[in-house]
Design brief:
The structure is a single chain. 52% of the residues lie in helices and 13% in strands. The protein contains 16 helices and 12 strands. It has helices spanning 7-15, 27-32, 46-58, 61-74, 76-84, 99-110, 121-135, 153-162, 170-174, 191-205, 227-235, 245-256, 262-269, 278-289, 293-308, 328-344; strands spanning 3-5, 20-23, 39-40, 90-93, 116-118, 141-147, 167-168, 210-214, 219-220, 223-224, 237-242, 320-324. The strands form 3 sheets. Strands 1-5-4-2-3 form a 5-stranded parallel β-sheet. The protein has a 5-stranded parallel β-sheet with strand order 7-8-6-11-12, with helices on both faces. Helix 2 links the parallel strand 2 and strand 3. Helix 14 (278-289) runs antiparallel to helix 15. It starts with a strand and ends with a helix.
């Protein structure tokens, strides 16, 4: 008989690094929401799941089960081989701990492959995530990077992380850079996936005295920052980055790589062009068509982004520190030389 395992125990085993969760739902379901770092070995692919669902609703549950058995039996050898290749103990799960995970676990047990099955499926994990974001107390102080668009905030965060400092990179978790062009070249995450990864990061960093984070708005693309983190970010210590516009232009062109997606950038520009004068819109479009992206970036900064930048942190001098630098690298050095020592001495 297949052994069931509660969510809390599964998460502890995964954190140990000696266990892994295997999602047996369809790839589409897996993409929408999954336990972080899970493998996806589906019982049914997207098309098969849709077909079985239609049979269940339009014909009968029995017809759906018969068709499911027919489809699954064809792929049994490859399905089992994928599990044999896993080098750690594992737990299988589906949506509610129902038919698919039960079928997978039973077949694996019959083949002599030990497994456990998550009680309640990923629905229990989703309920846990929501509870964590609503009720969890999160202790670390937030040090928030602010600055005009192109100030290298994301680059600085990632460099600080490489140096060993605690960081939550909200844009990376969202799969979006937070601007009208922010999804181009990336794969945005769903709200559920964003929150799952966020909770995982929070768990890793919950004992840190402080965490660096970017001064994002409430929404990053289509995902919304939970109030727990957003309110903490607003109340955090603010760093205001000041870089010359030529450096900001270079940062934008390097990070967004518009030369790879010129048509997508032109398409996205249509969503904001009405907020510019007709003459400025025409000038930007002409530069886009010629792939003169340095000029595009500079005009967008001067005439669209900079006028809309909110200086909320500037209004409370006791809560912010200004970092003036000529390059992103110099800004990182100043953060390390000025901000980190102040934090260590509890003067900031």
């Amino acid at each position: 008989m297949v052994q069931e395992i509660a969510l809390e125990e599964l998460l502890e085993r995964i954190r140990s690094g000696q266990h892994i969760a295997v999602d047996v739902r369809s790839p589409k379901e897996f993409e929408e929401s999954a336990i972080p770092n899970s493998l996806n070995i589906p019982v049914f692919n997207n098309e098969e799941r849709a077909e079985i669902g239609t049979l269940y609703k339009q014909v009968s549950p029995e017809a759906a089960k018969e068709r499911g058995l027919e489809l699954f039996s064809r792929k049994l050898p490859s399905f089992i081989n994928e599990f044999k290749a896993i080098e750690r103990p594992f737990t299988v799960y589906c949506w509610r701990g129902g038919m698919r995970s039960k079928t997978a676990a039973t077949v694996l047990e019959l083949m002599g492959i030990e497994t456990t099955r998550l009680t309640g499926g990923i629905r229990s994990y989703r309920q846990w995530v929501v509870k964590q974001l609503e009720e969890q107390e999160f202790g670390p102080q937030f040090i928030v990077l602010n600055g005009y668009t192109g100030s290298g905030k994301t680059t600085i965060l990632r460099k600080l992380k490489e140096m060993g400092h605690p960081v939550i990179d909200l844009e990376q978790l969202a799969g979006h850079r937070g601007s009208i062009f922010g999804q181009i070249g990336l794969k945005p995450n769903s709200q559920k996936q964003f929150e799952s990864q966020l909770v995982e990061e929070m768990d890793k960093l919950k004992t840190e005295p402080f965490i660096f984070i970017e001064g994002e708005s409430k929404r990053i693309g289509k995902v919304v920052i939970p109030s727990l983190l957003f309110d903490k970010k607003e109340a955090g210590k603010q760093i205001i980055l000041h870089l010359p516009i030529e450096e900001r232009v270079a940062n934008l062109v390097r990070d967004y790589e518009p030369h790879k997606y010129p048509d997508l950038f032109l398409e996205a520009f249509q969503l904001i062009k009405k907020r510019l004068t007709p003459a400025m819109s025409l000038a930007i479009e002409e530069h886009m068509e010629k792939q003169e992206f340095d000029a595009v970036a500079e005009l967008l900064l001067l005439h669209y982004y900079d006028p809309r930048y909110k200086h909320s942190a500037f209004r409370n001098p006791e809560r912010h520190i200004d970092i003036h630098a000529n390059t992103t690298e110099e800004a990182i050095d100043k953060i390390c030389d000025v901000v980190l020592p102040a934090i260590a001495q509890s003067k900031y």
